[in-house]
C-alpha cells in the first residue's frame, strides 16, 4: 500500500532521526518510562509504524532479551531501522493489513507516532488487542481531540494525500475497553511543535493490558 504518508516518510527517512532529535521527539522514552514500573518481561514485541527503529530501540533498552518484529509500509524507514537492529524481523506493510493476516501472538505491541496516520485507528487497536498473548500489553500514542486549535478538528487533510485523524480520549478508551483492553497507565505529552504557527502537537500515550490481567 502506497498512500501519501508512505511516500512522505520514504522521502523523510534519510533525515528522520536528525529531524526528530531537533524536534525533541521523546514519545519513545516516555512510553518506556510508563512501561518500566510494570515489571514486564516480554519475549515477543511487535512494533507497528516502526519507522527508523526508534521505538524498538527504546523498548530493547528496557527488554534486551526480547525478539522484535518491526512493521512499517515505508521501505526507506525500514531500511534505516535494519541498519540499527540487525537481529530484528522487518515487515513492509500497513499496520492493519499485517495484523489481519497474522496468526502471531505478542507479549507487547507498540504503536508510537503512527495511529493518527492510519486509515482507521480503531481497526488497528481491535486487531492488535486480538493478537496479544495472555497477559500481554499494548502501548500506543494517538492525537486526541482537544477543545481548541488544530486539534479541535477530527481530521486535518494535508497535501499529497495525507490526513491526520483525531479522536476523543473518552472514545478511544470506550472502544479499547470493548476490545478487551484494560488501561493501566496514560499520560498526555507535547510530541513536537507544528510548523506554520499551528502550535504544539499534543499526544496521549496509553498502556493497556489484555483482558483482566
Ligand atoms: C512519526 S513516524 C513514527 C516512527 C517511530 N515509531 C518513532 O517513534 O520514531 C510514523 C511512522 O508510521 C508509518 N506509517 C504510516 N502509515 C502507516 C500505516 N498505515 N501502518 C503502519 N505504519 C504507518 C510511517 O511510515 C512512519 O514510519
From TrEMBL:
Listed GO biological process terms: methylation
Stretch forming the signal peptide: none
Record protein name field: Class I SAM-dependent methyltransferase
Keywords: Methyltransferase, S-adenosyl-L-methionine, Transferase
Domain Methyltransferase type stretches: 46-138
GO MF assignments: methyltransferase activity
UniProt keyword annotation of NAD present: no
Amino acid at each position: 500500500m502506497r498512500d501519501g504518508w508512505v511516500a512522505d516518510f520514504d522521502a523523510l527517512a534519510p533525515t528522520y532521526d536528525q529531524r526528530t532529535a531537533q524536534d525533541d521527539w521523546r514519545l519513545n522514552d516516555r512510553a518506556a518510562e510508563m512501561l518500566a514500573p510494570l515489571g514486564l518481561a516480554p519475549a515477543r514485541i511487535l512494533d507497528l509504524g516502526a519507522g527508523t527503529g526508534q521505538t524498538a530501540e527504546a523498548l530493547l533498552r528496557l527488554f534486551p532479551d526480547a525478539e522484535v518484529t518491526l512493521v512499517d509500509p515505508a521501505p526507506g524507514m525500514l531500511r534505516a531501522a535494519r541498519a540499527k537492529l540487525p537481529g530484528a524481523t522487518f515487515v513492509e506493510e500497513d499496520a492493519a493489513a499485517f495484523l489481519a493476516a497474522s496468526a502471531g501472538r505478542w507479549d507487547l505491541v507498540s504503536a508510537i507516532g503512527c495511529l493518527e496516520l492510519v486509515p482507521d485507528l480503531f481497526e488497528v487497536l481491535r486487531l492488535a488487542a486480538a493478537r496479544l498473548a495472555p497477559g500481554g500489553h499494548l502501548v500506543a500514542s494517538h492525537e486526541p481531540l482537544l477543545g481548541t486549535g488544530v486539534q479541535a478538528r477530527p481530521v486535518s487533510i494535508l497535501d499529497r494525500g495525507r490526513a491526520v485523524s483525531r479522536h476523543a480520549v473518552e472514545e478511544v478508551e470506550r472502544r479499547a475497553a470493548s476490545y478487551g483492553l484494560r488501561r493501566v497507565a496514560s499520560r498526555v505529552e507535547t510530541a513536537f511543535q507544528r510548523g506554520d504557527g499551528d502550535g504544539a502537537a499534543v499526544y496521549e500515550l496509553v498502556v493497556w493490558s489484555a483482558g483482566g490481567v
